[in-house]
Amino acid sequence: MTLKFRFGLVVGSLVLGVVATTTGFLYWTERSFLFREAMERQEISLRSLSQVARESHLSQDDLMLINYVINLPAKNPDVLFAYVVAPDAKGAPQVVAHSIKDLSGVPLSVLPPAPAGARVLRESVMDGSKSLAEAVVAVSQERVAASIEASLARTRKRIAAVTAAMVVVGLAASSVLAVSLTKPVSRLAQAAWLLGQGKLGTRIQASGSDEIAMLSREFNAMAAKLEKLDEMKKDFVSAVTHELKSPLAAIDSYLELILHESKTERDMRKWLSDIAVIRTHTDRLSRFVTDLLDLAKIEKGAFFIQKSPLDVASTAREVVRSLSPLAEKNGVSLQAPAEAPALPPADADAERIRQVFVNLVTNALKFTPQGGKVEVIVEPQEGRLLCRVSDTGVGIKPGDLGRIFDKFEQVKESRSLARGPKGTGLGLAICKAIVEAHDGRIWAESELGSGSRFCFTLPLKDGA
Length: 464
Ligand SMILES: Nc1ncnc2c1ncn2[C@@H]1O[C@H](COP(=O)(O)OP(=O)(O)OP(=O)(O)O)[C@@H](O)[C@H]1O
Ligand SMILES: [Mg+2]
Description:
This protein is α+β, with helices and mostly antiparallel strands. The protein is 58% helix and 17% strand.
């Protein structure tokens, strides 16, 4: 059963229920009102008769009373007959006036009894505390019931017409409501289906502040995230392919050259320089595979470090020394931390801290144009060691500073400016995991076009 049908059914039943209850209540109220009204009419007839009887007695005008009684059934069609009885000169009850003309003036005893089903109402005609006569009105219950029934039949007709109109309008409104409420849900389902089919650019209109609009906005945010992840996956695959392919191609071409030239006499220096190039490429491959393995460990929560007292400045100097040839090749000045003053040891994993310096300095060299400067500084700060790698390179936009520490994140514009291998965007994510595993903090400060500063802190051995 579709949501639209179910909704229509519930609202339709509700409309029918409300209409049935309202009309039932109206009918019942009308019926009681008609009964009450009929009773009141009978009481009024009796009271008026009694009144006229008193006035005619006081004014000694029997004719007035007789005329009134004769006309009473015409005024109130429920009245079968009416009369006024008063004692004659001998005290015997005599009919003073009767709605049947011939019965006026006869003794009470000759009056025929009231027919079955008649309701007889009586009231004493009083003059102060003295009873003058008795007014009697007989009402036909059958006529009362018939006149009420006739009125109720008219009411039923009206109620039926109104009910039909209300049901039609109610059902039409409920189906319009059902369609308007379920339409956005169908649109969401359609968009989710498209997303499932791989159309990650699918978005839906989300205006208003109701729950459906909120859901639509969440859907759009989710679709945007999926699209971004997909883009990152594509970038990563192409970066990985590039990172694997280019050193392999270089190694392959050098090996081919060596094989080819080995048939002839070859200079030892040429051998060594070719092997050094091959070594550089295997190093690059090995670093890349290590990065991937590190990332896998970080993702699994199985990334551990082994702390021991570490001379961080000397580790930084070693890294600078090993990367000096690259700096020289790039025409960038690379400065190591000063030898003096000697700093207290940090409590850190030497190999991992070395990895952090390698990535930060490699990045700095990668994004600093010829003639620029890269400087590594290590200094104590508030009971910790603060390490800084500054460059005069291309810089990073403020908007990108927060995301470059996420895995696979690379700044698109600076990728084209990078010198040497483009990388895969894993380095800083791994640096962050390493520094945080040491209870340290890592961050970047930068100004687009002027350079960047990557800083991290490390705890001192025993808080020395
Ligand atoms: N010193 C820097 N100057 C300018 N941009 C930088 C600098 N360091 C990092 N970035 C930006 O941050 C991005 C992420 O750096 P990260 O070290 O994580 O990856 P990568 O160097 O591109 O690749 P990998 O380190 O995996 O080989 C870089 O691609 C670059 O856009
Ligand atoms: Mg890097």
